[in-house]
Amino acid sequence: MATTNGAVENGQLDGKPPALPCPIRNLEVKFTKIFINNDWHDSKSGKKFATYNPSTLEKICEVEEGDKPDVDKAVVAAQAAFQRGSPWRRLDALSRGQLLHQLADLVERDRTILATLETMDTGKPFLHAFFIDLEACIKTFRYFAGWADKIQGKTIPTDDNVVCFTRHEPIGVCGAITPWNFPLMMLAWKLAPALCCGNTVVLKPAEQTPLTALYLGSLIKEVGFPPGVVNIVPGFGPTVGAAISSHPQINKIAFTGSTEVGKLVKEAASQSNLKRVTLELGGKNPCIICADADLDLAVECAHQGVFFNQGQCCTAASRVFVEEQVYGEFVRRSVEYAKKRPVGDPFDAKTEQGPQIDQKQFDKILELIESGKKEGAKLECGGSAMEDRGLFIKPTVFSDVTDNMRIAKEEIFGPVQTILKFKSLEEVIKRANSTDYGLTAAVFTKNLDKALKLASALESGTVWINCYNAVYTQAPFGGFKMSGNGRELGEYALAEYTEVKTVTIKLDDKSS
Amino acid sequence: MLYQNPSAEPVTSVPGAESAMSSQAHPDIPAPLANLKIQHTKIFINNEWHGSVSGKKFPVLNPATEEVICRVEEGDKADVDKAVKAARQAFQIGSPWRTMDASERGRLLNKLADLIERDRLLLATMESLNAGKIFSHAYLFDLEVTIKSLRYIAGWADKIHGQTIPSDGDLFTFTRREPIGVCGQIIPWNGPLVMLIWKLGSALSCGNTVIVKPAEQTPLTALQVASLIKEVGFPPGVVNIVPGYGPTAGAAISSHMDIDKVAFTGSTQVGKLIKEAAGKSNLKRVTLELGGKSPCIVFADADLDSAVEFAHQGVFFHQGQICIAASRLFVEESIYDEFVRKSVERAKKYVLGNPLNSGITQGPQIDKEQHDKILDLIESGKKEGAKLECGGGRWGNKGYFVQPTVFSNVTDEMRIAKEEIFGPVQQIMKFKSLDDVIKRANNTTYGLAAGVFTKDLDKAITISSALQAGVVWVNCYSMISPQCPFGGFKMSGNGREMGECGLYEYTELKTVAIKISQKNS
Q1: What ipTM does the predicted assembly reach?
Q2: Where is the active site (chain A) (predicted)?
Q3: Tens-place pLDDT, residues A472-492
């Protein structure tokens, strides 16, 4: 899910760096309730849950805790909004696009507020939130705004005396369950194509990070989407998430998160009503550095590829395979980079790395680091939590990692780089593919033939060549194997949010 | 040229959707801008205003009053050369325009739509004043279509996909859709703004640079849009606008050795000259959107009132100055008399006058030449034995007005049934059988549009396949939307504008094949 979306590189047209934006201090959180039918609701149970700032471990606020009855309410609203003849169903596709454009305008207007909220709730560096998460969110809304009136069916020259055409119709009520690592961006990836195709949505943001989603609810209302088109129910996975996945009146579910939970979601979909499922799950992504690569570029990309967003990216470059001639040099430079990585207050403009999202993740990462030490990997730097600071972990690099170690097999989701050695292309292809995951892969080489060979040999939904995290709203994203089902972004995403209907009309005669 | 049908199918949002689309719903039509000042009368090159190289200017008239509105710099070959240099420069490899993200091109086009929306009243007033359009039509239809078309085409910019192709051999093969280069665009006077945006938007969305020649009768809104191009921040040289005449500026564009493509909307006669000039010079790509003599076929089982209204609007809208005009109306004999009666009643309802005044429903023809041609054709109809049901002459003694005219008992060999009239003149013919009407409808060198009115499913689909026309409307007419391709069969044109197809007229397809050591599926 990590992305630079071209934002930083492409930035300003005139080449002048803009003044750095500043976060809003003491930002008041205005939206903490359940959003249904363009109104704010309390939870049926009366319960609330706290959301914390992972950087300070302080409670930010309490949010209404949705559960099955709240999901039911939201589904009723979403179904009503999707009724034949409703304002939403009768709206011109071009006008749907225009609403998404206006939503992008408002996100742009409130960019600083949203970036501040995102940093408070996730602990990600504010400048990353502002330039990467928000940029991607805005661009995603604009990109899909443009698709709304370009979702074309076909007429088909079938046999016999018939006219045959297809219509690409919205699926209906779509559930969306978004993760905590890129709360707003992942929300945009799901909401934008769903609305672009004319669906209605019931969305559950991650319980760790509900704030930007709820703020977006207020913008949905301000833009003037008809009531019930977008509904947001904050809460926990086993309650709200399960209610969405197994709901008999939800026609599709899109989930981003762990492979473990992805399996539960698909199982629930099957047991209930065979709702359509798209999943964007974990990864253990190979990053292959050939000896002929631009080493400076490769070191930097591999470093950012695994450390970006505190390592909490499903695209994380968590298996770096380096060709043996350059192995020593690559490790040396990578360690240098890792040691220089500024860790600290995410609101500080110099900070590149903030805290992990919560205690559970923090403990899991430290446990995997310990396993690495025990299993004989060489700890080059880091390897523990930052002294006397909540959920921060030192940037960690392991060399001499072998394929059978846990740190080479399991998704760590933390600031831990594992560097492996390889000798031949055929060998590294086999090793890179020897995993249940298949989300992304990267290759660094200047050799054209090698690059294209690896691009076709690697079993992953995305292959980056001489770049990393080059995720663009125009290009599809998703996983092979157990990294997911289906694709998000690009034109391909539209197919995940439409049903194709074939209409065949019998005629007396035909004519070519 | 064509528009949404004004009364039969208003362009307002769907009922009930207004609350959702508050900023989209049509406000009450405001009064035209008082004290309209014409600010831009020069040649626009490299985001700057230039006097003509020759020093000449030409007068721009108000067709309702025959008065001169202003004088505009008259471009000729030397000015076109200047513009081409700027456009070529802006298209150089490595230029800001060539290195811009496609999504950013889309963003600029969306901003242009925002500015046109901001200046909607000014542009509508100008269009009404200069083109003789009913102000409310200019405001509601021309500007609406302009803005929507621009937003539609803006969305395509980063969706113009090539393909990867499973070619034979150990190859990796892909295609790129690249911009063609410098595109010449020659715009007609009947829809100055809409036709400008259809061409400009498509060319820019694909990454081309352009030289636009607006019609000499109606250069004002194009020059106003030029100022918005600059305000939006398109790089200099991407859009260049050279007002002037066909035989000079138009010919210079069509035959220019350094223009890679020309798009023209206008008469079939001039379209032929353009394609010929393109052939003689550098084989530049050509798209043409030309004349029509479009059939509109009404079966006895149709909803009669709806058919009468659509057929009426189909030929009378904008004083009949539309290339899709439903100018051959075929009515099944059992309902012929009733249809004629209702059509005549409808045609008599017009109030002619200055199109800027409220309550006026028909404005003037564009100029004296057109005005006289229409009157000549009306006379031929009378002479050749058609029955004049109403109208039949000029109106008033100032401005280029023609009375709304209906002929019945028209037969296929009459001039009014064969030639494009481009005026407020309806021809109603009679037919007996499906096969007969298909033959007669197709018996023309034109093939732009066609209309069919019937409730019978099989008949509707059979005839929509049988008609030789680029667009067939069933139980409606003039329903143009930016999502749909538009263009002509036969001598009504080459290529298509708008829709996804329209884009491909502004790209070159490049196949790249890379040898690899071993392929894998």
Answers
A1: 0.85
A2: 280
A3: 999 999 999 999 999 999 999
